[in-house]
Amino acid sequence: QVQLVESGGGLVQAGESLRLSCAASGSTFSNSRMGWFRQGPGKEREFVSAISRRGITFYVDYADSVKGRFTISRDNAGNTVYLQMNSLKPEDTAVYYCAADVTAGDPTTARYWGQGTQVTVSS
Question: Mind listing the pLDDT tens digit for each residue in 92-112?
Fold first, then answer.
């Protein structure tokens, strides 16, 4: 049974940083495109970032709204994914979901989802 467990959410002030982690289990994720989505209050869930690996090369994608502020990474085994979030803004407030087998289409979605972790940024 696939499980994705997020951690690292919390309450911070604007301009501060948080690091989210996602531990994946129940399958082999080394070849899976993994990523993060978020859903803010009253909003639809949206793509944040994704990372995949082919050989020794990592490929990353970011939503325009987080480019230059967020950095996605994963460990070598591929079972843990991180999202380093810097210069946080109130509009980044959302429940952040870890995802595995993230699609590359439009809309971007995923096959597996975590339960989510709350990130709240105060102004």
Answer: 999 999 999 999 877 889 999
